[in-house]
Every structure is written in C-alpha cells, then in structure tokens.
C-alpha cells in the first residue's frame, strides 16, 4: 500500500488532537471536587459555618445575602464551608440550592452540609438533597449508612500538614425535622441509631490512630437538649435572645460525646436570634450566626468561623458580619485570654526569698474564717506548700497561710480553692480579697471556687484564711492554678516563697 503524500500532516493532526485532549483532561482534573481536607503549613484549618440562609428565589434579599456572605468568604479564606441546614425555603428548591452552594463552588472551597428541618418541605425530599449535592463540585458529604436514622450522618477527616495521616475529624448528623407523633414534641431528635453510629465511628477512628483520640467537632441543625442548660448559665459568650428550640426527646448524643471524649465542640443553627457559645462539662455548645436576609430575626447576617490547630485539643471561634468580628472565644481556656479591659496586677519585690509557706495554726470553735484573726496562735512554722499538714486534730481548727507565688510570665491565671462543705475560706491576692467562701454548707461535697486574674510576671502575695467548723467530716484544702502553659490542682512548692 502506498503511503499518503501528506502523512506528516496526518501525524501532526493526531498529535494536536492528543495534546488538546490531554490538556482538557488536565483542566478537568484541576476543576474536580476536592477530596481531601488538610491543615495548612502553619498547622491551621479554618471552617466557615453558614446556617439558616432561607433562600427564597427572586426576593430582593437574595443579592444582599450573596454580597454579605461573599465578602465574608473572601475575607476569611476558609479551608472549608459547612452549611448547617435550612439553606433554601423556596418552591423551586434546586434553583435555590444552586444559588447558595455557588458561594462555595465559585471559590473552589470544599463544602459539607447537614439537613435542616425546613430543607425537605418544598420540591426536594430530604433523602434526595445530599445525592443532588453529590453531583456538585467540591462537595464532601454523603447520606450515610442506610441502617442509621436520617439522611446525612457521615464523618470527614482532616489530614496532617506534613504527614499522610489523619489529624482531626468532623462528624455530621441529621438532626431530622418533625416527629410523626405530636406527643413526642414539635421537633424530631437525633435518634439512638445515630448515636450508636457515632460511637462506632469514634472507636474505629481511635483504633486507626493506634489508640489515640484525635480532636473532633460535630455539626447538626437543631440544638440538642443540653443547649438549654448552657444557655441558662452565665458562662456564655455571644448573643442569646431565644431559649433553644430543642427536642424534648433525648437519645443521649451528649452523654456519648462525654464518654467517647473526642468531640471538643458542637455547632448548630435553627435559632436565628442566638449566636452564643458556652462550655458544658468540657464540651463547647455553639450556635452559628443567622446567614440569610430572608430568615426571621433582627441579628446581623454573617457566619461563625472556627479555626483548629493541628496536634492540639483547642480551637478559636468568632462571629463575622459586615460590621466586623465579634465574640472571640478560645476553647478550652477562654477565660485565660485577655480582653481590651484586662488590668494586670503588678508584681512585688521579694528580697532573699526562700521556698515555702509560712503558717499560723489555731484551735477553737469558728463561725467564720475571720474568727482566726481574733484567736490566739497555737503554733507557727514553714511548710512546703499550702496543705493541712500543720493540723493536730480533724475539726475545730484553722490556719493562716502567707506566701508569695512566682508567676512565670505576664498573663491571665485562674486561681482556685477547694474545701470540704463544712469549711470556711478567704483568699487574698496582693492584699485584696478575691475569693470569699466564708460560710458552711450541708451538701456533703467538696466546694470549689475560682477567680481569673491578669497578673504581671514576678512575685504576688498570697494569703489564705482557712477554718474548719464542723462535725467530724474529714477536712480538706486545695489551692490550684491554671494558665495557658500550666494546670495544677495544687500549686507546686517550686512556685511558693516566703
């Protein structure tokens, strides 16, 4: 067979076709959904939580929502977006979904989603929402196991910045919508099969990490019942104008979070006029900021930002709106970070310090720790640390302790005292009374009091008046200190001088 005269042209065309196809394939791969979350080279991972957008196609609020949230995303530059439900309340739900999730897709940001109670009320059933999102670029979620209640129970892992291993985990739960029987309350709950699924996943992830727990966060839409308890406490940061709309049935997710010990904090939406965060028994319970202008509520529209630190059980979070950043919160030691109003107690000069605590010992019947000041001293001496070592009996005695604590660096420190319920105590720092636990109780439990102070580096005078007042129960006394770099139930003797 004769070769074509223009075979070189033929070969050139084939080469160009192959090159073009390869380039297009390369473009397709670079535009593919991100399939891996990873800490950056600084060991940080930032999540923006968007919640309760309530997008309604064609309203004048759509443009406002897009502009506000777009500015926040461009400013914060997150590694991931989490939509915690109720993102679309529109008849053509797919069109509304597309408009909302384009906030992530157009910026090539990986994103995840959990169902809200309203998301399945329109043109797309709840079970089909996540499968619809799985067709979109950069989406990382799934409906989860079929034998687990709800749609959208899954876990994602964040990789280490420098090693090919998991460094943190993110749990996602479908908090469901409404129960079939109104006798069970207005809102549905996270069911027991979901709780069991979480426990199994937590055990599995721990085994994969050679028995060590990785820090984790959890996301869902409707707040679990424990949110009401932390809401009613005084230890929250942020706005709170609505009692949490929680279910009345509790399948025990929070109890399991405590037992499994991996989840540091949970993040929900649902209440548009709450943006608070507080810690309940070691776990942070946080609301997001209402994000959409078609949602009810008088709050600014915005987002909650969460930043994790690789290798540490801590995170920092804040609310971002058009008016700026608000309600900065450091987990787990938020009280140990200064604010603009923090005042630092100056240190004192201590000449020729020697380690130890000087004490005066008293015996008698006391109604108050201040009764020691008008009682004859039975003995004096020096001990290594603040303790009941000088006591010669188990009731009706008291001690006055005087020492100087050596603070290693300027910062915030939490000082705490713990006594039996029959004891009275007063704590003075640099001659100022800071803890007054000067009354007896009858609850038969140790009583703990604490105060957080800004303190300059150096020596600070400590005085404790302690009086045992009661009825044969073993006396107890503890003086502790917590800082960003320390945590002592009892202040060590290396920090105490006289």
Describe this structure in words.
This protein has 498 residues and is α+β, with helices and mostly antiparallel strands. Helix content is 18%, strand content 31%. The protein has helices at residues 7-30, 61-76, 93-105, 126-133, 192-208, 226-231, 253-260, and strands at 37-38, 44-50, 80-83, 111-113, 154-159, 166-172, 216-219, 236-237, 263-268, 277-280, 283-287, 302-309, 315-321, 324-331, 344-345, 357-363, 379-383, 397-407, 411-419, 423-429, 432-437, 447-455, 458-468, 477-483, 486-488, 496-497. It has an eight-stranded mixed sheet with strand order 1-5-6-7-9-11-10-8. Strands 16, 17, 18, 20, 21, 23 and 26 form a seven-stranded antiparallel sheet that branches. Strands 4-3-2-12-13-14 form a six-stranded mixed sheet, covered by helices on one side. Helix 5 packs parallel to helix 7. The longest helix has 24 residues, at 7-30. The chain is elongated. The termini are far apart.
DSSP strand count:
26
What low-confidence regions span 5 or more consecutive residues with pLDDT below 50?
1-10, 12-33
Biggest beta sheet summary: 8 strands, mixed
Radius of gyration: 30 Å
If helices are DSSP runs of H or I spanning 4 or more residues, what is the number of helices?
Answer: 7
For this structure, the quaternary state is: single chain
Strand order of the largest sheet: 1-5-6-7-9-11-10-8
| Class based on secondary structure composition and strand pairing | alpha+beta
- Shape type: elongated
Helix content: 10-25%
- Mean pLDDT comes to 91
Amino-to-carboxy terminus distance: 108 Å
